[in-house]
Amino acid sequence: MTRAEEQQAAPWHQMDAEDVLARLQTIPGAGLSTAAAQHRLETYGLNLTPEAVPRSGWSMFFAQFASLPVALLGVAAGVSVLTGGLADAVVIGSVVLINAVIGYVTESQSEQTIHALKRLVKPSALVLRDGHACTVSAEEVVPGDLLVLRPGSYIAADARLVEAQRLSVDESTLTGESLPVPKTTATLVMPAAPLADRHNMVYMGTLVTGGQGLAVVVATAQYTEIGQIQSLVDGARPP
Question: In this structure, what are the phi and psi dihedrals at residue 158, rounded to the nearest 5 degrees?
Fold first, then answer.
C-alpha cells in the first residue's frame, strides 16, 4: 500500500474516534512517542504542500509580448517599415520593448516577494507526544499525531476530532463559508458527506476560532484536502 493509500484508505468521518486512534496506533491522551513520530516523519516525509514550479526569467520576458495590443503594435511597425516609415517603426519597437522590460521587472519582483514571504511564514502546531504537549513545526506533523486545538490555533493537517468542547473552526479558506463552523466528535452516517458537513473533521489551513479539542492527524502534505486542491490548480492549463 502506498503512502497515499495509507492516508486515504478510510472515510475517517464515518469511523468512531476510538477506531481511528486504534488504526493509527495513537495512544489516547498521550499521542505518539518521540521515536514513533520520527519514524513516521521518515516514512511519510515533511508535511509540506506541493509548490508550483517558478517561471524562468525568459518565459516571463517573452510572455510580455503575448497580448493583442503588442501584436497590433508589431503589425503597425511592420507596415511602417514596408511603407518607408523607418523612424516610426523604431519608435513603436522601442515602446514595445520598454513595456516588456517594465512588465518583466514587475512580475519578477512580485514572484520573488511571494517566495520570500513563504520562507518567512513558518506555522507551528501544538501536539501531544509522550503524554506531553509540545510545539513543533507544522512541517514535522505526522499521521497519528494528536493536535491540541485552542483558539487561534493553525490546523497543520487533516485530522479526526477525538475531543471537542464548544469547538468552532474558520474553514473559509477551504469551503468558502463565512461563519465559523461548530465541531463535534459524533460519527457521521452520511457516506458521501461533503467537506462542509463533516463536523467531526478539521482540515489543514483552517483556524480555530473558539473552544478547544484534540484531533488525530489522518492526512498530511499533498494528501490533505487543501494539498489536493493545490495540486489540481498547479496542474491547470489555460485553454
Answer: -75, 135
The 3-state DSSP class for residue 143 equals: coil
Instruction: Tell me the C-alpha distance between 206 and 217, whole Å.
Output: 14
Express each pLDDT in 183-223 by its tens digit: 999 988 777 778 888 999 999 989 999 999 999 999 998 88
CA distance 198 to 13: 6
CA distances from 206 to 30, 131, 136 (A): 24, 25, 17
Element (H, E) at 137: strand 132-137
Q: CB burial class (10 A; 0-12, 13-18, 19+) of residue 237?
A: exposed
Joined grid coordinates for residue 91: 519608435
How many angstroms separate the CA atoms of 31 and 128, rounded?
A: 5
Q: Report DSSP letters for 42-97, one per residue.
A: HHH----PPPPPPPPHHHHHHHTT-SHHHHHHHHHHHHHHHTT-HHHHHHHHHHHH
Distance CA 134, CA 136 (A): 6
Q: What is the DSSP letter of 13?
A: G
Return mean pLDDT, the chain.
84
pLDDT tens string 14-54: 899 999 999 999 999 899 999 999 999 999 889 987 666 66
Question: Where do we find the cell 519514524?
Answer: 39
Closest CA to 171 of 208, 137, 122: 208
CA 150-155-159 angle, 5° bins: 105
Cα separation, 144 vs 40, whole angstroms? 9
Neighbour count for residue 74 (Cβ, 10 Å): 15
